[in-house]
Amino acid sequence: ISLDEFLTIELFVHHLPEDPRGYFMVRIRPNEKSQALPVMSKDLIFVLDASASMGQRTMAALRTGIKLGLSKLKPEDRFNVVGFKRTVARFRPALVPANPENIQAALRFVDGLEPSGRTDIYGSLEPISKQARGGDHPFIILLFSDGRPNVGVVNSRTIINNLTANVRANTSIFAFGASQPMNRYLLDLLSYRNKGFVRFATDFSTTVGQIAEMIEALSDPLLINLSGDYGNIGKEDIYPKTLPDLYRGGEILIYGRYGQEEKFSLRIVGEARGQQKEYIIDLPFPDEDNGPDNLPQLWAFRKIYDLIGRMCQEGETPERLAEIQRISRTYDVRTPYYE
User: Fold this and answer.
1) Is the CB of residue 199 less than 8 Å from the CB of residue 191?
2) CA torsion angle for 163, 221, 277, 196 (degrees, to 10)?
3) Is the pLDDT at 13 greater than 90, yes or no?
4) DSSP string, 167-196
């Protein structure tokens, strides 16, 4: 099946005065016709921080959100639920089919998770990170936590680097941050380094809705293990460096710089139901700016995140810190880290 008619591709550009190089953003998203595409089954593990720091109100909202997620699983999916504090409680020893009997039992298991004790994030996620069954379907870890370990491995960089080293190519980690205070760095970078994204709870009244949106976005996988070839455009200023998986309810955003190139070219190779798929994008750069005024800031924010991710992996250097500060000043953008 060719993907051409099932995807909507948009190319936006913007220029700053006195700068010959422009900024671009490409948005790739499945359109209404994608409903006809077959979706892949998925393996999904809900990982809930059930330590005392989560609190009763936060835990109640997260339980409701996870139960909603369980009810949205498809019969061909496989799943598990893990609750952790100092020790780990597993719904089942391994992934199980998402049949009605298992779903009902899992709902009862979730209801029994209460906040108490200390927090060992690494001890809970380390064995899970190695459980991917193969590369022909996505393996999704969905973490609900405040990101504040206080027993076992507690260093954020060590947790992020070790877990990232464990996972297979078909694994993605998504995080939902809840309770206060939060270690946003751990949740954010753990997701960023593993093809996922993070959402942070704003207040109790919207937590379940936010979780529902995450679950919906991850419901129907279409293409996984993506790689991209940008042809004649220099890839050093293109972000993200690793393309995320494509879901019917999601989108892929690519930010970059261009100079004299007349067109944007991208060859995407991915896998769908065990078969390799190729999609070629070939669009002329618009003659006139059609992107938002803040497109340069959006690009700069992604570049900073790439630098932060590399420092998490390889360590801080004066050069990288100076580069982050330079970009932050030049584009007037801020991140929660390395102000």
Assistant:
1) no
2) -30
3) yes
4) --TTEEEEEEE-SSS--HHHHHHHHHTTT-
CB-CB contact of 81 with 45 (8 Å): yes
CA distances to 100, 154, 271 from 311, in Å: 45, 18, 30
Stretch 13-21: mean pLDDT, rounded?
95
Of 66-70, 104-108, 245-249, 274-278, give the lowest mean pLDDT range. 274-278
Residue 2 confidence (pLDDT) above 70: no
42 SS3 class: coil
Dihedral sign, CA of 215, 221, 225, 226? negative
Average pLDDT over residues 283-294: 97
Pairing of strands 88-90, 78-84: antiparallel
Residue 254's Cβ-count burial label (10 Å; 0-12, 13-18, 19+) is buried
pLDDT tens per residue, range 210-262: 999 999 999 999 999 999 999 989 899 999 999 999 999 999 999 999 999 99
Give alpha helix (H) positions in the chain: 56-71, 100-111, 121-128, 156-166, 184-192, 204-217, 295-314, 318-331
pLDDT (average), residues 190-195: 96
In sign, the C-alpha dihedral spanning 244, 250, 256, 260 is positive
- 223 by Cβ neighbours in 10 Å (0-12 / 13-18 / 19+) ranks as buried
Give the whole-number percent of the chain exceeding pLDDT 70: 98
Measured torsion, CA atoms of residues 176, 178, 182, 187, in degrees rounded to the nearest 10: -10
**Does 1 have pLDDT greater than 70?**
no
Q: Are strands 43-49 and 78-84 parallel, antiparallel or unpaired?
A: parallel
Q: Which amino acid is at 253?
A: L
Under 8 Å between Cβ of 173 and 192: no
CB neighbour burial string for 105-118, b if at least 16 within 10 angstroms, e if fewer? ebbebbeebebebe
Contacts of 89 (CB under 8 A, 6+ apart): 50, 82, 83, 113
